[in-house]
Amino acid sequence: MGLRKGIVAGACLMLLIGSAAHAADDRLACELRLSQAESLVDQKINQKLLSEDDVEDINLLLDEADEACTRDDNKGLNEALDKVNELVSAATKPSQKNQ
Q1: 36, 80, 91, 98: which could join 65 in a potential S-S bond, CB 3.0 to 4.6 Å?
Q2: Contact, 87 vs 62, CB < 8 A?
């Protein structure tokens, strides 16, 4: 009986460790995606391709994406980053630069 409890406890511990490692991997992937988006936005800001209004809207979306990472909300992360990409793309089209 003692050995069986030890095996069960060991198996439970391995599951917990595996879950924690998986959660850490998900968080790292989320932070990497967020960092890449922020880097792209910074490049566009440095190139003066984004208006102040665009930057304000994008920063709010990046905050939403960061909160989604914290909540392990991949859907929320994807939605926020998709909107960031749309705003960056729309703001940096050649027709926008000449106006």
Answers
A1: 80
A2: no
Asked if the structure places residue 62 within a domain, the reply is: yes
Is 8 a domain residue? no
Q: Give the max Cα distance, the chain.
A: 78
Range of the domain at 51: 27-97
Q: In the chain, how many domains are there?
A: 1
Q: Are 64 and 19 in contact (CB under 8 A)?
A: no
Q: What is the mean pLDDT of the chain?
A: 82
Q: Which alpha helices (DSSP H) does the chain contain, by range? A: 2-46, 52-70, 74-91, 94-97
Question: Are 87 and 51 within 8 A, CB to CB?
Answer: no
d(CA 10, CA 81): 40
Note the pTM of the prediction, 2 decimals.
0.71
Residue 91 is predicted with a pLDDT of 84
Contacts of 85 by beta carbon, 8 Å cutoff, 6+ apart = 37
